[in-house]
Every structure is written in C-alpha cells, then in structure tokens.
Specification:
Largest sheet: 4 strands, antiparallel
Oligomer: single chain
CATH class of the largest domain: Mainly Beta
Structural class: alpha+beta
Strand order of the largest sheet: 1-24-23-22
Order of helices and strands: HHHHEEEEEEEEEEEEEEEEEEEEEEEE
Radius of gyration: 21 Å
Amino acid sequence: MNLLKKELLQGLDKKEYEIANKFIDTLNKPFADTELAIIPGLIKLQQLLKTNILNYKTIIILLQIFTIVFYSCEKLEDHSIDFTQESEFTAGIEGPAVDSKGNLYAVNFKEEGTIGIVNEYGESSLFAILPEGSVGNGIRFDKADNMFIADYTKHNILMIKKGLSEAVVYAHDSTMNQPNDVAISPNGTLYASDPNWKEETGNLWLISNQRFVLLEKNMGTTNGVEVSPDGKKLYVNESVQRNIWVYDINTNGTVSNKKLFKTFTDFGMDGMRCDEKGNLFVCRHGKGTVVILSPSGDVIREITLKGKNPTNITFGGKDKKQCFVTVSDRGCIETFFSKYPGRNFKK
C-alpha cells in the first residue's frame, strides 16, 4: 500500500488525503493480499460515494486503488511502475541491494562515486561517498548486513560495515579488467564478474580471504552473476555473446562442470537474481525487460519495463516479493512483484 500512496495520492489536499488514506487502511487488513480484501473495500467505497463529499479527482483515485488491489489478487502484472523519480540517479545507476531492515541501495545517486539509499516510499537520499576515484557497480549484503561493492575503476571490492557509511578496500587486484557485478553464496563466499568491453572478453573471480582467485579467464563479456538458493550452482552471463552459463560450486568455493544454461538471439544481458525457488531473473539490456527463467532454463514470465536499459535487480518489500530494477536510460528504479521471495531471504 505504501507504493499506492506514493503513486496515486500526489496532489490531494489534506481532507482528500485523509479520506483516501482511510480507504487504503480498509484494504490493508488481514487477508489484504487475497480476494477477501475486495469485500470490505467495496463496502467502504460504496459508503464514500454516497457521502457526496468527494470531488471527481478523489473518486477516480479511489477507483484506481480498488482496481489495483482487485487485479493484484488475481494475477501478477507483466509490467513495471516507477519506484523512484526519474533522473535522481545518473546513467550509471546499478547494484540495487536490500539490507535486513528493508532499506534499498543503488550506486551513483546524483553523481558518480556515490551510493543512494531509498526508503519504502521511494524517496532517495545520499548514503555514502566512495573513496576518491572509486565508482561502484554491483552491491551485495552478507548475513551480518555488511555491504560489498564492486569498484570497477579501482579494481576493488569495497566493504561498508554494518552501521557505518565509510567504504574501505576489502580486496584488490590490479590485474583485473574491472569488477562489474558481485554475488554472495549462502555461506558468505563472494564471486565477481570481470568484463573487458573493448575486447569482448571477460573473467570470473572468487574472493577468498580478502584476495581474488581467478576461476576462469578468456570467457565472453562476463556481466551478471548469481548463486542458486542452495548454494550449489553459480550462474554467469556474457552480455555480448548472449549466453548464460551454470557451474557446480565445489565445497571450497571453486567451480566445475560448466554447462550452457540459456542463450538468446537478440539484445544483451546485465544483472541477475534468484528467487527462493531457484528461478533466475535476468535483466535484458536494450530490450527493456526482465525475463524469469526456471531452474531448467525455460521462460516462465517476462516483465516489460518503462526504460530500455535495465542494469540490475534485487528483491525487497514487506514480503520480500517486490522486485527493484535499476534502469540506466531513465536514471531511476522501477518495480514489479514476484510470485516468490528473493533467495537472499530464504531461511
């Protein structure tokens, strides 16, 4: 309902805002995520319409709210809506990640070399300024709520400890092209993609004991990277070659048994995330969609975004089923809902 408030209640005067909020509260009861929300909502709407105290604009807004709730009970929408205002972030917006308190973060808020924090209403503010010359890309949190950031300009993985906002170097390797995206397994092991955009090649790295360990070199243009919910599979995509590879993760964190998981014939790929069932959400850069693949690689669903260049995705919200997508050509975050929570929240 917080998302509805932000999207629909803008521009109402105080009295109208209070009326609309009371209507939302009627829907925001036990069973509000089921068809049972329709009954008290319909009764309340009838009562409000009989009072003759509502102007045309308020009536339309209440009908919009009721319609959204009704259809959300029936099906998942296959399109996104805005969560933050357009152009609040630069074209380098990336790395959406949610901490245990539900705060959403993304890199390059207002200017390069920053991290922004976004509250539940989609309001953004500055969280951190990275060390001079550093620019962030992918972000992940460990179970202790420490933040890890891929710093592609300085060949670092940066860390911001829980409760702080100052980034320090966690791992560095000058031989890297540029750490792009990061993933963290259930046991805390970090992985990083490392593309060379000019040569259309890339590498894959493991970060162990605060050092980079090369897992595979001379791949395609490595970009999105993700771990399955059980920590047994590692997914890596190649943006230019349009391939997604899957590996078995060995007990020491290294990988083996590389197999082609999925290939596309058009458009690129960027960040990826799994839900708790192991379905893989893939940002289709240039196409303006997020495609959801089953653990066997079948297309389950595809969500159309407002922007054309999604860079990454994460899960959050009240039930951990809300997806947040960073979109570079609009400099904002768009949102839609998943059937299952994100795998990072699986207990």
